[in-house]
Amino acid sequence: MVDFAIKGNNILTPAGLQKAVVVLKNGLISDVLKDLPPTIDVEVIDIYDKVLMPGVIDPHVHINEPGRTDWEGFDTATRAAISGGLTTLVDMPLNSSPVTTSAAAFDQKLAATAGQLHTNCGFWGGLVPGNTGEIEKLIAKGVLGFKAFLTHSGIDDFPNVNEADLRKAMPIIAKHGLPLLVHCELSTDEILATGDVRSYQNYLSSRPAEWEDKAISLLIRLCEEYNCRTHIVHLSSASSIEPIAKAKQNGLPLTVETAQHYLFFNAETIQDGQTQFKCAPPIREKENNDQLWVALRDGTIDFVATDHSPAPPDLKLLQRGDFMKAWGGIASLQLALPVLWTAARQRGFSITDIARWLSEKPAQLTGLSHQKGQIAIGYDADLIVWDPLNSFTVSEELLQHKHKMTPYLHQELYGVVEQTYLGGLKVFENGTISQLNAGKLITPFMK
Predict the structure, then answer these.
(1) How many domains is the chain partitioned into structurally?
(2) Which residue range is the domain that position 284 belongs to?
(3) 369 — phi, psi (to 5°)?
(4) pLDDT per residue over 205-236, tens digit each?
(5) What pTM does this model have?
(6) 262 occurs within a structural domain
(7) Between 147 and which of 181, 233, 279, 345 could a Cys-Cys bridge form, CB atoms 3.0 to 4.6 Å apart?
(8) Is the dihedral of CA 36, 46, 353, 224 positive or negative?
């Protein structure tokens, strides 16, 4: 029995945008047709000129539960997700307490999702010094891969690894074919922040691009040595684009993401004291960020992920404007699609590009490309309907995040998400969440 069908003039299939009818049955896409034959008697939803696209997959989200639910939590994060068309998240292993660096901690993480998982969610395990013995235990529990830092993470119980730690872990991770995600900054004592702590330029200088470049060079070398799937998170340094491109040309299993804020904002427009813009690596100059767009266009950068990293407003020190002591992280989960589309449309990119960066390529990193990220027969009916021509202004009232502080407040953004479907079930429509607790846990064992 077919559940229903969605027809429209802008259905995003692997062949591109086209007029089509998508037939949904038992939570899956059962067919994609040019027209619905009269032999199929089914309810048809006509979206006319709106876009039907695979749901957004964000593999870089800090949900912070258990232990720091006052920062975000599964309930608010996944409400924000479906409101923004995000049908699958992957939670980072730090900022929760305990951090997800052991099988026992992972069990606590899974237990914390009960009754408040409103979109699909998978999990990265954490790699820290001394937990090599937990890697295969975490894999057996169902993590999708591992995350490590090469500089201080901001959380003392999630310390950074060094080259020796990576050499112990990468052969194990490579044996299981999972990705290692790395925050690439190698700090030194050569450049220290001095001067006005409210100065954005001062903060930018304190985390130079050379830190990223040095770390990425190390990761490329180890990726080649161990043939371990290696993923560079939130690339901000354009000077690393060329060595990344060469590594990919040489066939290394290397992938790269950047974040919306490196594409939407530029250092030149951030005023002193505006700590809502603080993140690490920092938002760099326009000339640098323009090169990130070029690398997205040619595929050197694979996709875009939010690095949603919220915190209570008092930790951002907005009144003091102290960039050196404020929490580094940008809240943007619900805005992933419209932020990227607003910036991309100004540069001549297409909706097909958006789907590749937000759906198709993230599905590949997470091992879900056989069932998510495309509108094709047999794929999960995780879908969104959105209007690329309509705009809205970001307000606190609109956001489902626990805390409403974000540098995107009051920005006019294009791309209004009108409907979100999880497994063929409508969970969001026109500003209203219509179904809660429809999310599923995502593991590599899914069929």
Answers:
(1) 2
(2) 55-365
(3) -70, -10
(4) 999 999 999 999 999 999 999 999 999 999 99
(5) 0.97
(6) yes
(7) 181
(8) negative
Contact, 425 vs 435, CB < 8 A?
yes
Residue 46 sits in the same domain as residue 83: no
Same domain, 392 and 278: no
- Determine contact, residues 237/213, Cβ cutoff 8 Å: yes
Position 190 scores a pLDDT of 47
Q: Is the dihedral of CA 249, 254, 260, 265 positive or negative?
A: negative
Q: How many CA atoms lie within 13 A of 410 on its CB side?
A: 2
Q: Which two tokens stand for residue 55?
A: 């749901």
Alpha-carbon distance of 33 to 19, in angstroms, equals 9
Same domain, 42 and 165: no
Please report, for residues 166, 250, 296, the alpha-carbon distance to residue 238 in angstroms, rounded to integers and kept in the order given: 24, 20, 11
- 90 forms beta bridges with 122
CA distance 400 to 398: 7
Indicate the residue type of 69.
Answer: T
| C-alpha–C-alpha distance, residues 174 and 257, integer Å | 20
Beta pairing class for 303-304 and 44-46: unpaired
- CATH number of residue 32's parent domain: 2.30.40.10
Tokens read off for 295: 């690398």
Taking alpha carbons only, the member of 270, 387, 298, 335 closest to residue 58 is 335
C-alpha dihedral, 146 to 277 to 396 to 112, nearest 10°: 20
Cα distance between the two ends of the chain: 21
Q: CB neighbours of 65 closer than 8 A, spacing ≥ 6?
A: 72, 73, 74, 96, 109, 112
User: Are 110 and 32 in a shared domain?
Assistant: no
